[in-house]
Every structure is written in C-alpha cells, then in structure tokens.
Amino acid sequence: MALYSAAAAVLDGLERGQGGLKSLVYNSGFPHVRQLYALVSETLRYAPVLEKLLDGAALLQAEKKLSPQLAKVLVYDLLFGKGLKCGGRWKALARRHRARLEAELARLKVRHKVSRNEDLLAPEQASAVASQVPRYVRVNTLKTCVDDVIDFFKRQGYSYLGRAASLEELRALSGKKFLLDPHLPELLVFPPRTDLHDNLLYTSGHIILQDKASCLPAFLLSPAAGSHVIDACAAPGNKTSHLAAILRNKGQIFAFDVDPKRVATMNTLLARAGVTGCQLAQQDFLAVDPGEPKYSKVTHILLDPSCSGSGMVSRGPGEEVAPSAERLQALAGFQRRVLGHALSFPALRRLVYSTCSVHREENEDVVQAVLQERGSAFRLVTAFPSWPCRGLAALPGAESCLRASPAETLTHGFFVAVLERCEEGDDAPSPLPVAAEEKPQPREEAEPGAAPRKRKKKKQRVK
C-alpha cells in the first residue's frame, strides 16, 4: 500500500503545483524511487484514459473514501500495469470493481476503433519548451560555498565556464558544462535534463535542485539575519531552506502546511539541508492568529499559495495544465483570502507573493484586489528592476511585479510581487533603490566567464 499512497501523494503535489515530478518523487521519502517514478509517470501518461474509465464505471461515486489520485494509480496498475501486487483493502476494493472497469475499457476501445491499450493514448509530442529549460542548482550556503561546489563538479569531469553574461549562453549549454547564473549569486546552471538526484552533493544537502524562478521569492524577500519570517504555505520546503540560508540560520522561521504527509517530507528535506531555527507546523495558515505573541516580531512573510501550477513546464507526461474558469476563480478566492490574512500581521514590513501560475486571475488580479481592500497600508515596490519580464498591464503599477517564462527567462512560468508597508508621511508608492532589490554580487567586477575568486572562509568541504 505504501507504493500506491506515495504515488497518489505525488499526483496530488503535482496538481497543487508544489514541484516537478522528479523533485516530488525524490522528496517523497519512499525508499524505491525508481519504482515510484515509473508508476507515477505511466499513470500520468494514461491519465486521460483513466479519467474516462473512472467516469464510465462511476468508481468514485461508488467508493466515497477513494481519492481521485489513488483511484487513478490503482486502476492503472490493475488494467495497464503489472497488476496489483500490494494495496491491502484498496487492492480488494479495486478488484471488486474489476469487471465494470474492464467492460468500460472494452467499450472505450470499440468507440475509438482500436484493439490495443496503447492505441488509446494521444500521439506523443515532445515538449520543445520543457527541453529548453536548464537544470538549475542552488548552492546551499548553510553547508558549503559556491567555490567548493564548483571545484567538486570539476573533479567529477564537468567543465566550468564561469558566470554567464546572457541567457543565450545558458541556452547554448550542452554536455558536461555548467555556468554561474547571471542574476542569482548562488545558482549554478547545467544543460536541460541533467540528472543530479544521485549526486553526493544532492543526497548530502549541499545543493538544492530548484528552478531559478522558484529561487526568486526568497531572494527578493531578503530578510536580514536575525529576522522573524513566516513561510505561509511552505511545502515542499525548498523556499524555506533558501530563507534559512539567507538568514544564515540566525533568527526564526515559522513554516506552515496543512497536509501531514507534506509536512513530514518537508521535515526530512530541511534536516538534510541543515536548517535550524525553523518551527514547522501542520496548520492551515488562515487559522493562524496574527495577534499571538510569538508572531509579534514577524517582519517578513513569503506567501506562495496553492495555485493552478500552469507555469510548470516539466511536470510530467499527460498532465492537464489548463484549469477551468471555475477552478481559477476558486483558487483566486483562496489566494485573496490568504494574502489579506498575511498582511494583517502587526509587525509585517515586507511580503513576497508568488505563484507558479501564468494566469492573470491568480496573479495581478489577486494583488490588485487585496491592495484595494487595504487602502494605503501597503504598496507595491519594484522587484528586480533589471529583470526582463514584467507584470501584465491589467494592474496599475504592474511593471513593479515580475513574471518568468520558458521563452523569455528560460525558467518555469512564475509571478512575483513585492509589497511593503507604507511609512508614515509617504505620499505615493515609490520603488526601492536598485541596490536593495538586486543585492549586487561580490564578483560583479570580474570579467564575464572568469572563475569566481576564492572566499577566505570556507564551510565544510565535500570530497
């Protein structure tokens, strides 16, 4: 049963936009990751067929306690996989409905005039967009430094090309070559589909496999060491570990997620990353009381709520990334509530709102609605002025927000808005100084392509 439960949890995480397929599988805690990855991948590939079978056989109506994700996994293995080898009571449940499911599958083949299961699948279409997005690697500065990680990869036969001067250099990466990202100081860039999940640096927590766009929220929140910070919708925990690295494990992070399985996974990830000073709570952030004394010093909040996940370009085969208008409205309603709630913390100075969605309803429209409700208490500030992709013009001041996309920034699709509390006497919103937003890097004066200078003080070295 553990296999099917783990697979259903990964499917749920994908639907919630909480990460890519590989990252969710490898962070699941399931011991046989290849078996889990294969099952989830094939379930996703057959997802449109499975949904028709579930509807035709009315399985979810007959079994109220069976989640759609678990139902897909069970029916895939029952009809298309190697047969149900485990599963306990769920295995017995699926077998009870086997005759109806097989009859529905036969009817489906007749309607489509095919004889093989594989012929029910849509023709495979390679995603040119996904294949262009590089593999981004965030160096975990709680355990090591950029220089040592670069040296480690060079010893493994990789060729380091220095800091990239343009996106074209990232686009041209191939083979065992890698670069330092042109924007973020602790981000390395490898060719697309480079698999580092078995690399010692990853398994030991020295590097985090995290898309560049996903690194932007913590980078732009930029809390000073010693700050009290909330990560409101924290799982799977990559942004939380990034916050801890920025804080240098000094201060306090309060991280919330309502799902017990995701909290357990996140706890494992944070421990591997060497994060301390983080209170992880299985709790709905909307139920957190801003007036509680322990939150009285919270000055920074990172809010990356559940969204459609429509910006994820490599989530897996066969996934639906075009939510209905009804689902978008429901998500936007939740996002407005949670953003308004976050802005009610009394000591809050700065908040970053982000989604991995491309839809205006979840992004600019949410920010605009909440700012109108809040009057002049908070303002948009210009996030990362040199970033090429800005917010959609639907929101006044949208140029202060930023967007990311595979075509324009070689990342997943993302949206980020930075809000700050207005000071007394402020007449109108004004962008922060560029230096405060872009955090100039210590290697700025180096020639493009030159190796970064060695730091005097190094953290633990991986050999």
TrEMBL record:
InterPro entries: MeTrfase_RsmB-F_NOP2_cat, MeTrfase_RsmB-F_NOP2_dom, NSUN5_7_fdxn-like, NSUN5_RCM1_N, RCMT, SAM-dependent_MTases_sf. The keyword Transferase applies. Residues 452-463 have a biased composition (Basic residues). GO terms for biological process: rRNA base methylation. Residues 91-118 form a coiled coil. PROSITE patterns: SAM_MT_RSMB_NOP. The active site is at C356 (nucleophile). The gene is Nsun5. Residues 436-446 have a biased composition (Basic and acidic residues). This is 28S rRNA (cytosine-C(5))-methyltransferase.
